[in-house]
Structure formats: structure tokens, C-alpha cells
Write a structure and sequence with these properties.
Length: about 200
């Protein structure tokens, strides 16, 4: 009588080979995943600011009266204007000191909408050219002065357009034209016919 024993499970050598393969894959994938997360945080922050700008313009046209988009330090009763915070407020009047007010068409500062700097990411940062405020007229245009450019970066890396050889992140830029149009672009793109070009 022949008795056969079937092997169940894995041997120690097979287990070690499997763990080595998993470790190698993680070693290769983790840095790329970190860069992916940084780029996602930058894009989310830029998208939030672009949404606020477009909302302010649309509200100005809808109400046929000036509406402001402003970066503020935070959404408290002690808020101040800021060129480095991602918190923003869309309102008809200056929201300084009243960023925590409820949205209203009649009560100052006549807030339309606000967004906290911590929504989406706490690692993104901005650099704003032209001040902390842009005012859209009832026709959706921007009179002289105000925000013209917003650069969105991340606190944990270098943008590729700043240092092409060592830059790890795809930082974004938002441009605001005097005609009231706001658009997000990629400063890294240089091809003349590419719509992502700044």
C-alpha cells in the first residue's frame, strides 16, 4: 500500500522569497506614491481657489453688483486679509473681522460662501501676486488692481518649474485676467500649443 503525503502551506524559503518581492515593490512604489499625494494636494488647493474665484464672478454677474473674493487668515471673528493662507471668503463687503458670519444677502459683510484652509489639505501653500482681494464688477470684469496670479505649492518639496532636475512636484498657477476670466495652468508646460501652458 502506497501512502502519499501532500504538502500543505509554503516552505520557509518560499516565504522569504515572497517577502523579498513585496519589500522590493514597496521600496520602488512608496516614493512615487508620496509625490502623487503632494501633487494631489496641490491640485485640490488650486481647484478650491479657482472654484472660489469663479463663484465670485458668477455671483457678481447674477447680482449685477460688485462681489469680492478674498484670501483671509482664518474663518473666525478675528480674521484678517492674507496672501499666504488658503482660507477664502466670497462676499459683497469686506469680511475682515467677520469671516465667521452666516451667509446673508442683507447682513454685513454679506457673505456668499467661505472655505477653510484646512479643507482638503494642510500641506499646500500659496503665493499671491496683486494683493489678497479681487473684486468682480456686475459685468464680471476686474477693475485695475487685485489678485492677478496665485501660485500653489506644497511645503514638502520643490516645484519642477523652479528646479527641473531636482523638482518633484507639479505646482499649479491660477491666472486672473482683467476680463474676469480665471484659469488654472501648469508653469512646467512650455509647448506653445498646449492648453495647460501659462
Amino acid at each position: 500500500m502506497l501512502i502519499r503525503f501532500f504538502q500543505r502551506g509554503v516552505t520557509l524559503i518560499e516565504l522569504m522569497i515572497g517577502l523579498a518581492i513585496v519589500a522590493l515593490v514597496l521600496f520602488v512604489a512608496v516614493p512615487s506614491f508620496g509625490i502623487f499625494l503632494q501633487n494631489s494636494q496641490i491640485r485640490n488647493a488650486a481647484g478650491s481657489a479657482l472654484d472660489g474665484l469663479q463663484l465670485a464672478r458668477n455671483e457678481a454677474i447674477r447680482r449685477n453688483s460688485p462681489v469680492r473674493f478674498q484670501f483671509v487668515s482664518d474663518l473666525t471673528a478675528a480674521c484678517t486679509l492674507s496672501t499666504t493662507s488658503l482660507a477664502w471668503v466670497v462676499s459683497q463687503a469686506d469680511p475682515t473681522g467677520a469671516c465667521n458670519a452666516a451667509p446673508s444677502d442683507t447682513v454685513a459683510p454679506q457673505l456668499v460662501q467661505s472655505r477653510s484652509a484646512t479643507e482638503g489639505t494642510s500641506n499646500a501653500r500659496i503665493t499671491v501676486a496683486g494683493g489678497s482681494t479681487v473684486v468682480f464688477t456686475g459685468l464680471g470684469r476686474v477693475p485695475a488692481g487685485g489678485i492677478t496670479q496665485i501660485d500653489v505649492t506644497n511645503t514638502s518639496g520643490t516645484c519642477q518649474y523652479v528646479d527641473p532636475t531636482n523638482g518633484t512636484m507639479r505646482c499649479m498657477r491660477i491666472l486672473v485676467s482683467s476680463g474676469g476670466q480665471s484659469r488654472m495652468c501648469d508653469p512646467q508646460v512650455t509647448a506653445a500649443n498646449d492648453p495647460r501652458k501659462c
